[in-house]
Amino acid sequence: MYDSKEIDALKRALEKLSKANPTLPVFESSVDWERIDTVLGQVAGRMHDNYPYHHPLYAGQMLKPPHPVARLAYALSLWVNPNNHALDGGRASSAMEKELIPRIASMWGWDECLGHLTGGGTMANLEALWVAGQLHPGRGIAGSSQAHYTHSRISSVLGLPYQAIDAGPDGRMDTAGLEAALASGDIGTVVVTMGSTGLGAVDPLPAILELRQRYDFRIHADAAYGGYFTLASDLHDDTRNAFDALGAVDSIVIDPHKHGLQPYGCGSVLFRDPGVGRFYKHGSPYTYFSSTELHLGEISLECSRPGAAAVALWATMELLPPKPGGEFAAMLDACLDAARALHDALAKGSLFSPVHVPELDIVVYAVNAASSSTASDLARRVFAAAADKDLHLALIDLPAESCADALPDMARDSKTLSCLRSTLMKPEHADWVDEIVARLNAARQSI
Ligand SMILES: Cc1ncc(COP(=O)(O)O)c(C=O)c1O
After folding, report:
1. Span 62-87, average pLDDT
2. 121 lines ligand 1 (CB under 6 A)
3. Which of these, 50, 143, 238, 396, is most buried using a 10 Å CB contact count?
4. Based on the domain organization, do 200 and 287 belong to the same domain?
5. Is the shortest distance between the CB of 150 and ligand 1 below 6 Å?
6. Is 59 a domain residue?
7. Which domain holds residue 219?
């Protein structure tokens, strides 16, 4: 979990950082190291009460350990504790944030754009839908029934009507259903999910873009989880075509704290038209005096934001540039390989059945049983039995009807089917699939 080389690297960097401000007189603050030690020991003890997120046998929720360079750069910056609200609070970290936004945007070919980091995907989506609402006042937001629940909640916060469009069994938005909703003229913005939280499904963006020839609407891509997969080398054709069309949307959310190797507290929102910055315009009696240059607080709804998040992401992108064919892209390929290998192994075995072909690195599978109610009960029991064997999974409830094609012999005697869900977000997962399957089978056989 922890390598002492990390602390050595941090020490060397801190020594260099300490050389800043050589003309300032020295001062000492009094700190009781003995008590700090005691409290830190308490914290370490309390933190035992967690799932082992860092380990490949954690194959459940969407949780990925940060890269050591991100962790260390974040920690290093805490000795300065910059605030990226205004240049008054964080000059170097604001400059880093401004540098990294176009580098993120280059993944889908935007030369010019407006963007910034946010506390996470929810805040980033809130800003995107807020701008959408400013541009289409009173008109609603539509997203698929598999879109993250945040979109309907955000729409309600913004006072905009929200409409859920059916998704097919593959988890992708049904474009015929979307067209019917657009024909009403009430929809101002469509949220296209580029990797759904449940199944990792990518909405059919090219077909949705075609609808823009007939209807007037804005497209916001929620690529919070899936966005980085645009760098992967071997996506299925439909998925590749959707990612290749990403440059044509109006706004994009991508979360470095999901697949971008960052600690939590790092989402981002980017707008194709930098002109939308006008909606953020505000004065501040307290800040913005230190420079006539752009202060990030002038284009962001959050005021204080951790400069540490920008420092960590900048360092990570410097070490692992987000380029097709590079080391970072290879990590995403490894996650895809792991998901496909798990899917294939489960499909070949007799105890579980995948309910979809994974588009990204999420695999959802049912426990084989005669009926959906029994399969749901077994899924919950396998979930607990696997945890006893140090294999940590997640659960998902799907409409039982949506699994009819994948599970033709299972009687659907309940509205929903509980399935097991594994997000294989660590490149190391690729080497652990056999072990994961062995423990899964053992967990099923133990109940
Ligand atoms: C597609 C998608 N959008 C939005 C979110 C919300 O992001 P956050 O948890 O960073 O607020 C998630 C979280 O899993 C997600 O998967």
Report:
1. 97
2. yes
3. 143
4. yes
5. yes
6. no
7. 91-319
